[in-house]
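Hi R.,

Here's the chain you asked about this morning:
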Amino acid sequence: MRQLERQLAKICRKTSVRLAEDPDCRTSVTEKNLEEFLGARKFRPEDEKHDDAVGLVNGLAWTSVGGELLTVETAVLDGSGKVELTGSLGDVMKESARAAVSYVRSRADKLHIDKDFYKNKDIHIHVPEGAVPKDGPSAGITMTTCLVSALSGIPVSGTTAMTGEVTLRGRVLPIGGLKEKSMAAYKAGMKKVIIPGGNVPDLEKIDEAVRAGLTFLPVKTVDEVLDIALVRSPDETEAADHA
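And the predicted structure, written out as tokens:
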């Protein structure tokens, strides 16, 4: 609110200067002329175009100033099984990434992924805006989905966001800050939000406009997450390869 007050004061000062120069002038502040009063825009609005993509998933994060859309990217390269984690990640988030790799290894056959990927592929998981520290377990299902997408070549829905902790056995555990995360998804133009089943009671705390603008999909397992987030199932891809 202090920043808002400063911006309003800046507008008032510039308006006062105009009135001093021409007492008869009338000034209106609109979206079109706002930059005349406050200068060039400092923050770029979120890109509203969210295409389906391989190895790119929209996660959600809680911060002290509200929720944020947290994009996770994964690249799979020929190599010897190294896992690279970048983006100023904290210890808990790094553990989530390792848990995601272990879970995918345990489900490789069902997901129609090369079961030896951990031997002959290097995996690089990156969370952009590397100057901003990130931590917490709620990106677990985001990292798991991103890894499955990158290894299988199946795109992830660009208008779906998700949050939830993941276990080695693929259970999805509740998280905090759902209200703030939901607002971030709404502002970013998401259509669906995957949440842990244990967070369903928290939906009552979410603003009505946000609830009306988003479809919340509670899940209990990673398999349910993949069924929603991937544009097609790994079974369909496998069948197409053998056709």
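The mean pLDDT is 90.

Let me know if you need anything else.
M.
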